[in-house]
């Protein structure tokens, strides 16, 4: 019986050494952030309660979803949506009209609110038309489109003093060609923030 016990002890020791060797470091060093994660990586960590932490910026600080209330989450989501709408700066028009499309209205309202909140911010509205029609007609059409966007922004909170309008008519096409696709992309107003 003593023989079996010595073999079991030897096996247990061998297993322990194998376990320790398997868990030992490889010699690589990583700068950790205090939570066991490499602070230089963009990997999101999961905390003990199951919430995730999003790291942003150089300082490594972030926001943990397990700490945010539902109201704070909704506010953060709304802010992200507003920021996405502010990134839309080109608005398209149907043929021979200056009527603002329904799908453009939310983004334009977001721009108007931004201008209202930032009274020193200036924006130039550049009106464009496709190549159909005379140069004079297209300049006038580009102007009507830019003025329509200006009126919409002012009605929704922007100041007229923040807005400059200019028409390029057909002179600055974004796409060259005589297809309906090219025409549709050239019938536009671009917001240029200064």
Automatic annotation (TrEMBL):
Residues 1-21 form the signal peptide. Residues 80-194 form the OmpA-like domain. SUPFAM superfamilies: OmpA-like. It is found in: Cell outer membrane. Pfam families: OmpA (PF00691). CDD domains: OmpA_C-like. It is a lipid-anchor. InterPro entries: Bact_OuterMem_StrucFunc, OMP_bac, OmpA-like, OmpA-like_sf, Pal, Pal_lipo_C. The keyword Lipid metabolism does not apply. It comes from the Bacteria. Keywords: Cell cycle, Cell division, Cell outer membrane, Lipoprotein, Membrane, Palmitate, Signal. Its main location: membrane. Belongs to the Pal lipoprotein family. PANTHER family: LIPOPROTEIN YIAD-RELATED, STATOR ELEMENT OF FLAGELLAR MOTOR COMPLEX. Part of the Tol-Pal system, which plays a role in outer membrane invagination during cell division and is important for maintaining outer membrane integrity. This is Peptidoglycan-associated lipoprotein. The gene is pal_1.
